[in-house]
Structures are given as structure tokens and as C-alpha cells.
């Protein structure tokens, strides 16, 4: 194949780097692109778009390789990778930061903390900013600082014609609306972002665990949904339910003494085996949670929005699902708190449709032996089928390739508007992938 016209760093199947370059974070994704082009600037991106059109080869857009279903790659596709676009510029004069699309979260967190700032990003350190923010973006600061997309002031995007566009409240405002919750790979290649950031020093890191305590699981689920109803917005929490018991990790923008009081209902659950409530530097809290994540693993996972209090029978069914899981250590149902600042912005103000949800419920299972994959995938599928019946809407950053009516599930009432914006900025569907708009 003739790769003339591609600029940046081009990796093809004959290169020694290709085997590494084609891999995703999810080891279960096994695709073979015709080439991966690592872009250094928007011109490289534009050249890749033009080359793909000339040769009739579809594009896939990639930043951190973390798409659950591997939609950022594809066999015989051209992968446009922004990894090397990773500059971060902090502007202390107006409390903003300019971030290029391939920037990994840990690099952004560390750079911001050096200037005394925090940022409502995610928890996995190797996720890139693009995939996070364009899907809305949740993390352990969401209830206090909002979604990642809520701090976005402006974005730069290369469109299907290779043109560089600015999107903000005044310029291409419809595109800016869409990029905050529905922009991942749908409208163009976003190359950089400007965010508002907040000053921070120390926060309270919370880690609770009920190891080898199966009875605590039901009580935790029941307490969780009651606890969230009037929860202090300064705290955000992610919980997990395993075969062996529950755990929770949280950030609180306040003191440990206040945190103890707020956590009261959870701390009253009998049999707690880990209670770590410590006042630490923000960056240390980020790194502690980041160590939970593997470098790479094979997994299947997805997530749905929960809007109502679940009944005793529904909670018991979730426990029964966990009891059937294929791995005690790597199969779980996850809970991701919403509310607080997430609800401060009107549902129509961004493309993120599910601001009124109480939390996200995910289901995930990972494996090491490829022979075990079918059992893990089957368990996730069965669990998802039940969770689907007690939820409304799916989280685009937790995509699922078996999702019925996926466009409506991801975007809800915003779907028609998003389809119009898609037609305006990408009329020939250059930016397409499984489950794209």
C-alpha cells in the first residue's frame, strides 16, 4: 500500500513497532489496522483524513486506547492516534489550562497540581483526556466540580474537510454543545481543549472495605441509595460489589472529621475490615486510586443510569447475579455517584442527557486465560440484561456492543439534535465506527 501523503509517525504492518502499536488497553480487542499514524499537530490529522478519503479507507480515532469495545481501532482501518499531542499549558492568570488531545490523565493531574489546581477528571491514570471529556466524563470530583465536560471552555477540531474549527459558546456553538457528551469520534478529530480549573491543596481520601463479608453486600446496596439522596456535594464515591463483599473509594473536599460524620451510614454497616480516611495532598489521592488499575487486561464491561430507588427484591437479584460471577477477584457490579454539581447544569445545556440520574451501575469482568473469556462475557451479558430492566439510558464512556437501540440509549432526547449536527459537520459520514451517530 502507498502511504505517501501521511505525515507524523506512520506505523505499518511491516514495522517492528506494529504489534505494540495496534494493541488496545483491553486485551480482548484484537484488531489489525492497515496503518497507525501518530499525529504531532493538526496538519498531520488533516493529512490522514485526506489520505483516507483518497484511498477509500475508513478512519478510526484514538487517544488513550481505552474504549471498552475497541471502537478506536479496526482491521484494515487507518488509526489516527493523538498520543504525541500531549502538551499542557497552565494559565494562572485566568485559572485555565490548555490540554492537547493525547494527554494522559496522570500527566494532567501532576502538571496542574504543581500550580495548585485540581481538575474533575477520571480515576484511571492512563486514560487520555479526549475520550473522557467527549463522553461527559465522571470521576471522584464530579459531585463537587461537575462532569469533566462541564469545565470545558473551548475545543479545537479538525473536520472532515481537514479544516481546523474552534468550538465554544460563541463560535460553532452547536458543535460545542455536542462535544460535551457526544463528541467521541462522531464529528471530527478534536486536537486540543481549554478548561477552567480550581485551586486545591489537600482533600480527604476515603477507602472502605468489607472483606469476606457477604452479608454486607445487601446492606451496602441498600444504604448506598439512601445515602446518596441528600449527600453533601463535596463527596463523590465509587463502590464495587464482589462475591466476597463491598468496597468504596471516595474523595471529600473537606476534613476527615467532617468525612466521618458524612460517612456515618456506611460506617455503621457491620464487619468493616478497612477504614482509611486520611487528609492528603490531592495528587497523592489521585495516585492511590490510580494504583487500582491494571496496566492492561482483557475484560468486558458496561454501565447504565439508575434514576430510582431499587426495591428489596431488585437488590437481592443483583446479589444473586454477583454470586454467579466467574471470578471472585475480578468480576463486580460497580456504582458511580452522580448528583450534586452534575445537576447544576440543565439537561439541555450539553449533549450529556442523564444529569438527573442518581448514579451509574456498571458490570465488569476480566480474565487472564483466553479460554475463560466466554464465561466472563456470558456473565456480563446476563447481568446487563437484568440491569437494563431497572435502569434508563447507557453511559457512552462505558459502551456495549450488544446494546439495543444504542443511539437512543446513549443520547436519549438529544439524539435528533445530534443527528442534525452530525449532518452539518460530517455530511458524508467520514467519522464512523460501530455505534457512531
Structure description:
The model has no long low-confidence stretch (mean pLDDT 98). Helix 3 packs antiparallel against helix 10 and helix 7 crosses helix 11. 30% of the residues lie in helices and 23% in strands. With 437 residues, the protein is an alpha+beta fold. It is built from 14 helices and 18 strands. The protein has a seven-stranded antiparallel beta sheet. Strands 5-6-10-8-9 form a five-stranded antiparallel beta sheet.
What is Rg? 21 Å
How are the strands ordered across the major sheet? 15-12-14-13-17-18-16
Largest sheet: 7 strands, antiparallel
Write down the overall geometry. globular
Number of strands: 18
Between the first and last Cα atoms, what is the distance in angstroms? 30 Å
Helix tally equals 14
Strand content: 15-25%
Estimate the mean pLDDT confidence: 98
Spans of at least 5 consecutive residues whose pLDDT stays below 50 are none
Structural class estimated from helices and strands? alpha+beta
Helix share, percent: 25-40%
Could you list some keywords that capture this structure?
437 residues, alpha+beta, 7-stranded antiparallel β-sheet, 5-stranded antiparallel β-sheet, 14 helices, 30% helix, globular
Task: Describe the secondary-structure layout.
Blueprint: E1 9-11, H1 18-21, E2 35-38, H2 42-55, E3 59-62, E4 78-81, E5 88-91, E6 96-100, H3 105-114, E7 117-118, H4 129-134, H5 142-145, E8 152-158, E9 164-167, H6 173-182, E10 189-196, E11 198-199, E12 202-209, H7 215-229, E13 235-241, E14 246-252, H8 256-262, H9 264-267, E15 274-281, H10 282-290, E16 298-306, H11 312-323, E17 331-337, E18 359-367, H12 373-389, H13 406-411, H14 415-425
Parallel strand pairs: 2-4, 3-4
Antiparallel strand pairs: 1-2, 5-6, 6-10, 7-11, 8-9, 8-10, 12-14, 12-15, 13-14, 13-17, 16-18, 17-18
Helix pairs in contact: 3-10, 7-11
Amino acid at each position: 500500500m502507498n502511504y505517501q501523503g501521511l505525515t507524523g509517525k506512520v506505523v505499518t504492518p511491516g514495522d517492528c513497532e506494529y504489534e505494540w502499536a495496534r494493541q488496545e488497553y483491553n486485551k480482548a480487542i484484537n484488531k489489525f489496522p492497515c496503518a497507525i499514524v501518530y499525529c504531532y499537530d493538526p496538519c498531520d490529522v488533516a493529512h490522514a483524513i485526506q489520505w483516507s478519503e483518497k484511498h477509500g479507507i475508513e478512519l478510526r480515532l484514538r487517544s488513550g486506547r481505552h474504549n471498552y469495545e475497541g471502537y478506536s481501532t479496526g482491521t484494515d482501518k487507518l488509526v489516527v492516534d493523538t498520543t504525541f499531542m500531549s502538551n499542557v499549558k497552565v494559565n494562572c492568570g485566568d485559572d485555565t489550562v490548555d490540554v492537547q488531545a493525547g494527554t494522559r490523565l496522570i500527566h494532567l493531574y501532576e502538571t496542574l497540581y504543581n500550580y495548585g489546581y485540581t481538575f474533575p477528571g477520571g480515576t484511571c491514570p492512563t486514560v487520555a483526556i479526549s475520550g473522557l471529556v467527549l463522553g461527559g466524563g465522571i470521576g471522584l470530583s464530579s459531585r463537587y466540580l461537575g462532569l469533566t465536560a462541564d469545565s470545558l471552555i473551548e475545543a479545537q477540531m479538525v473536520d472532515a474537510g481537514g479544516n481546523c474549527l474552534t468550538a465554544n459558546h460563541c463560535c460553532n456553538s452547536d458543535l460545542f454543545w455536542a462535544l460535551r457528551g457526544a463528541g467521541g469520534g462522531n464529528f471530527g478529530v478534536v486536537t486540543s481543549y481549554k478548561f477552567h480549573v480550581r485551586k486545591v491543596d489537600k482533600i480527604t481520601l476515603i477507602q472502605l472495605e468489607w472483606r469476606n463479608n457477604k452479608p454486607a453486600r445487601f446492606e451496602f446496596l441498600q444504604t448506598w441509595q439512601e445515602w446518596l439522596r441528600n449527600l453533601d456535594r463535596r463527596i463523590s464515591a465509587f463502590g464495587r460489589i464482589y462475591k466476597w463483599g463491598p468496597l468504596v473509594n471516595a474523595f471529600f473536599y473537606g476534613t476527615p472529621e467532617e468525612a466521618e460524620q458524612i460517612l456515618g451510614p456506611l460506617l455503621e454497616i457491620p464487619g468493616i475490615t478497612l477504614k482509611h480516611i486520611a487528609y492528603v495532598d490531592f495528587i497523592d489521592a489521585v495516585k492511590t486510586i490510580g494504583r487500582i488499575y491494571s496496566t492492561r487486561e482483557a475484560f468486558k464491561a458496561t454501565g447504565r443510569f439508575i434514576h430510582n430507588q431499587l426495591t428489596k427484591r431488585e437488590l437481592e437479584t443483583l446479589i444473586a447475579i454477583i454470586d454467579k460471577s466467574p471470578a471472585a477477584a475480578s468480576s463486580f457490579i460497580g456504582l458511580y455517584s452522580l448528583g450534586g454539581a452534575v445537576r447544576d447544569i440543565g439537561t439541555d445545556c450539553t449533549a450529556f442527557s442523564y444529569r438527573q440520574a442518581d448514579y451509574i451501575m456498571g458490570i465488569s469482568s476480566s480474565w487472564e486465560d483466553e479460554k475463560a473469556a466466554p464465561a466472563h462475557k456470558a456473565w456480563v451479558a446476563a447481568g446487563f440484561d437484568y440491569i437494563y430492566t431497572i435502569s434508563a439510558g447507557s453511559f457512552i464512556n462505558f459502551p456495549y456492543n450488544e446494546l439495543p437501540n444504542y443511539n437512543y440509549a446513549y443520547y436519549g432526547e438529544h439524539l435528533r439534535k445530534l443527528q442534525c449536527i452530525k449532518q452539518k459537520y460530517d455530511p458524508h459520514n467520514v467519522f464512523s465506527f460501530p455505534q457512531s451517530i
